[in-house]
Amino acid sequence: MSLIGAARRKGRGWPPAWRKTEPRKDYDVVIIGGGGHGLATAYYLAKLHGASRVLVLERGWLGGGNTGRNTTIIRSDYFLDASADLKEFSLKLWEDLSQDLNYNLMVSQRGYVDLAHSDGELEGFVLRANAMRLRGSDAEILDREALGKRVPQLNLDGATRYPIVGALVQERGGTVRHDAVAWGYARAASQCGVDIVEQCPVTGIGVDGQGVKSVITPKGEISTRRVLISVAGHSSVVAAMAGITLPLESLAVQAFVSEPVKPVLDVVVNYNAGLAYVSQTDKGELVLGGAVDPYNSYASRGGFRRIEDVVERAIAMFPFISKMRLMRQWGGIADIPMDGNAIVGPGTVDGLYLNAGWGYAGFKATPAVGWTMARTIASGETHPLLEPFSLSRFETGGLIDDAGAGPRPYAH
Ligand SMILES: Cc1cc2nc3c(=O)[nH]c(=O)nc-3n(C[C@H](O)[C@H](O)[C@H](O)COP(=O)(O)OP(=O)(O)OC[C@H]3O[C@@H](n4cnc5c(N)ncnc54)[C@H](O)[C@@H]3O)c2cc1C
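^ thats the input. predicted complex w/ flavin-adenine dinucleotide below
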């Protein structure tokens, strides 16, 4: 037996990836939510801005929210500047992130193929591809013949209900091992001096005449003048603790994995007649996702209707899937503002920052949100990439109505 094997068997030689600690009485910054976004913000605050008194509070376990529940897709193929610029910045950060964190995130830029089902839809994709190229990103339009070569497993039979006429492909899109992102950021943040406390829900937010003053937890009240709410599917609940009402809805969204099979699919494919997206993990499972369940809910599970719907569309894309068994299904809570885009930046209470409303599209933005939010908190000035995502856009009318953004509550 190898030395590593022996140490592992005895439970020795594997130091914890991040320090276990009890919270101190006060901090410069408290981050509520130990998902990828909160942990990334903590890491960049400590690493790039020298913040040494940062606390991350997680009510469950790190990555146990949407970070560990998503379908792991990354891409930057958006139409409008606001979404595209932030996601493109994120994609660039993903490309070097394993080295930066010294942690293998299994970043796989295997390509992201967005299918068009009509000539009109493909025409829209051409506009989006042109916008992407003008910004310096990569995009390619494939007609049916070229698509057949890129993804030979696709059913390109023109006699189907929603025939596929072409696609927009972003070859730099792909997948990242989701929970490794939480672990990698947590380990690196901890090494930079960030305190991380799990099993510690925030139950209240203290506010006085100067703005935010504390967070309340079962481990006591913790003083701080800067708080970031980064709790994905529970943003309304936590923001309400500071008296803020957010213009968003909370809906369950499901993901599915098949039994593992040999390598059959080396690219991510998205079907737009309804919604279904498919990729294959390194273990061999096919990962499937679709649209939200069509009702508000805080239950992290979903209904059979969506399972049937996603599987039907996946089989329409790849008929071989009909021979496979679905192994597991789970759900997460997606908070979706009315324009389908996130709310990121200062809240309406001094010292309180919001990172909410990413729906089922925020995993890809994890490094960029962490990076830009850290600078926003450290400098007190909103990072230019975050300005369009302000809460005030719902008052001023500056909504972000973006093709490619995906999540709108009842779009599918
Ligand atoms: C099924 C599904 C598929 C998805 N697929 C994709 C995809 O392919 N690509 C993509 O880009 N995005 C995808 N997403 C969206 C993506 O997962 C999220 O936008 C992103 O992971 C959010 O990260 P986060 O760190 O903000 O949230 P989370 O990872 O949810 O972290 C928030 C944390 O806050 C904690 N928390 C909540 N309340 C409190 C409290 N009171 N006190 C302390 N802690 C609290 C939670 O326990 C949680 O761990 C998908 C989401 C789902 C559900």
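Confidence is low (pLDDT under 50) at residues 407-412.
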